């Protein structure tokens, strides 16, 4: 299965019917990462997270678009730490989120990266990942701003538990070759999805570490 690692390191903590653990699968590697972040219209009266928080303190009951439980978690954390009064506007898709931002129906939203398709109309306020976004390298991550809640979403190759090591190595090598492929890079560059390859051992370590971290973030806020 080629899927986001969130099915293992986040979904179990926000969906009652999901109970996967890192030990339920083998991992052949990871290849790309999503540029998730807090975004706003270019006309918004702030350009970074500190500016947004200062503005939000002066504008209670501000509306923001929330597509996922993670989006609400991020805003709830910021609100609790800074005495903000947000008003979540549920959206059902990335398209609805973009429409709400472009139409200025909300002041901000949490995006999975689709906002980078609109560089003249939308701006990133904070990278909600542990790394700065390649598409916006001057924008600080939420962890750099003092909130240890960055969560990375990486595309991962899952295999059944017990898949032999030599099979995993062959697939991991193939994934590495794809990461270096010029045509594949054109596709990912066009979609603003950076290539961040990890081999099979790095992928397992990433899954295990983020499973523990995300459990703390999504279940008790620690």
UniProtKB/TrEMBL annotation:
InterPro entries: BUG (IPR005064), Bug_dom1 (IPR042100). It comes from the Bacteria. Transmembrane segments: none annotated. Belongs to the UPF0065 (bug) family. This is Tripartite tricarboxylate transporter substrate-binding protein. It comes from Sulfitobacter porphyrae.
């Amino acid at each position: 299965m080629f899927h986001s690692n969130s099915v293992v390191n986040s979904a179990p903590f926000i969906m009652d019917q999901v109970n996967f653990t890192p030990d339920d699968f083998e991992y052949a590697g990871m290849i790309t990462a999503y540029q998730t972040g807090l975004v706003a219209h270019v006309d918004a009266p702030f350009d970074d997270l500190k500016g947004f928080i200062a503005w939000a303190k002066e504008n209670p009951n501000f509306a923001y678009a929330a597509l996922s439980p993670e989006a609400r978690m991020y805003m709830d954390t910021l609100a609790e730490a800074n005495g903000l009064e947000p008003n979540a506007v549920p959206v059902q898709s990335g398209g609805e989120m973009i429409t709400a931002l472009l139409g200025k129906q909300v002041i901000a939203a949490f995006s999975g990266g689709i906002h980078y398709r609109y560089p003249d109309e939308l701006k990133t306020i904070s990278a909600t990942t542990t790394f700065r976004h390649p598409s916006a390298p001057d924008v600080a991550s939420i962890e750099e701003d003092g909130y240890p809640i960055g969560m990375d979403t990486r595309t991962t190759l899952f295999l059944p538990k017990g898949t032999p090591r030599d099979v995993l190595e062959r697939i991991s090598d193939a994934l590495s070759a794809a990461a270096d492929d010029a045509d594949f890079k054109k596709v990912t560059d066009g979609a603003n999805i950076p290539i961040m390859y990890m081999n099979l051992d790095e992928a397992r370590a990433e899954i295990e570490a983020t499973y523990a971290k995300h459990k703390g973030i999504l279940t008790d806020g620690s």
